[in-house]
Amino acid sequence: MRLHYPFGFSACLLLVLLAGCAKKSSPTDATLEAGVYTNRFFAIKVLIPEGWTVNNQESFNRAKEVGTKIVSGGDKQAEAVMKASEPRTKQLLWVSEKPVGAPVEMNRSLILAAEDLAGAPGVQTGNDYFFHALKVVTGPGKPLKQLNEPFKVTLGPKEFYRVDMEAKLMGRDFRQGYFAAVEKESALMLIVTAESAEKIDEILGRAGLPMKKP
Q1: pTM of the model
Q2: Is there a contact between 185 and 115 (Cβ–Cβ < 8 Å)?
Q3: pLDDT one-digit tens code per residue, 5-41
Q4: Alpha helices of the chain — where are they, by DSSP H?
Q5: Where in the chain are the domains?
Q6: Region of residue 208 (left: phi > 0; alpha: psi -120 to 50; beta: else)
Q7: Alpha-carbon dihedral 9, 14, 15, 19, rounded to 10 degrees
Q8: How many Cβ atoms sit within 10 Å of the Cβ of residue 198?
Q9: According to CATH, what is the number of the domain 25-212?
């Protein structure tokens, strides 16, 4: 019995270590406490601007369904591509200045999402990510108009690539800043909606993510 004990102990220890190594963190590994969203997977924090609303998953799902149809501009292939990416995409955070559906002309918002890129090892940077994504959401007949080429920025501690879009939907003019970073086989996406580039930068500052160009 004494001869078997060390081997048994070592085997148990090995199983514990292997189990620990096999445990993978998820992009949804996050907390929301005292107005601060902390994502441990991406090591990023977002401050919820004072007075803003944190929207729930049901509101996001409804908005996503409508948004997919609008952004695709009737392009069935683009709509199919967006729907195919849904199982790989996780909504992490969606905050808006007013509750969803509030009777206001502009409801400024900030969305944080992640997409699993394990099946696309060639996508190494936010610029690579935009190379593919922009072909789906922009083009003839689609409401989103690309205003610039992706350029590198720093938001808080992280490096992203930024692209700006504008659109006119339901008689209203929108401006959106799209930010993308790639790490741990995942794309981290930040989308800020407001009426101007200045307002987008202001929202980033209030969220604790002041933008800096290299």
Answers
A1: 0.80
A2: no
A3: 444 434 333 333 444 444 457 999 999 999 999 999 9
A4: 4-22, 57-72, 76-85, 126-137, 197-206
A5: 25-212
A6: left
A7: 140
A8: 10
A9: 3.40.1000.10
